[in-house]
Fold:
Amino acid sequence: MLELIKQPWPWYTSGLAISFIMVILVFFGKSFGFSSNLRTMCSMLGAGKWVSFFNFDWKAQRWNLLFLIGSVIGGFISANWLQSDAPLNLSQATIDDLQKLNIPFDGNIVPSALFSWDFVATGKGLLIFLGGGFLIGFGTRYAGGCTSGHAISGLSNLQVPSLIAVIGFFIGGLVMTHLIFPLIF
Amino acid sequence: MMKSVKYILAGILFGIIMSKSEAISWYRIQEMFRFQSFHMFGIIGTAVITGVIAVWLMKKMKSHDIEGNPISFTDKQKAWRRYLFGGTIFGLGWALTGACPGPVFVLLGQGYLVMIVVIIGSLLGTFVYGLLKNRLPH
Structure:
């Protein structure tokens, strides 16, 4: 059983498992939306004192913070006990494209050379991670949701606004990948 | 106590699923935005199709949640600007960091402590949205 879980999962297993998470949360009387936690965390840090948007009953979102803590633990468990020995099965075309940007493919889940304090210390790395995070936080709250809230929960409930948001996710992702990456890497 | 534990357990399951699906992979997100593999599209597509069926069934069967309350789904606010503009801004950050909000925390758990920088950035971004909210087109 453990050996089966340790292998890289086929896409259909993963997709089914993700919608299972959404269904569990619905049966718990909640809805699947991860980025709401960022607003909750701002409120916990006292942002409500300055901005009314953060002045809400964040304790009602406690369940989502517990879910967040669980996701960190889930990442830890996966990295330590559920890792497959096989390198990531990335397509050769992507490996070649990234090579041209001087980002080597190392077989890990993320490029270790970039996801390191050494890269953050270069300043450029700090700007990428801090700026990237800023865009994530600003964009998800502006759009009222992220991949979980719009692409999964929203589309499953046939919401047109969620479809518009997902189209936006791709416009932004394509612009970053094809137009901005060649300038920054 | 059990009330809280179930959310942590669901979160753990989510963290494992995100890890094993490789949806937390910066490389996989690059591959997706370059249309060089079916992997991510297959994951999202399967999740949405099965999700549509699940939501339809729950509505059809008038299901109740574990506390006995009828399950209801709230419609998203009718608008387009906030979804298109906000979505595009998030998309830029998603491609840049290779992670959406969930995976940011899953990667932190995987031991990539630099994700703390992304988390600080995302809290700042959320705060600035709150500041500017009334001046932005929605």
In short: Residues 160-184 of chain A form the longest helix (25 residues). The mean pLDDT of chain A is 96.
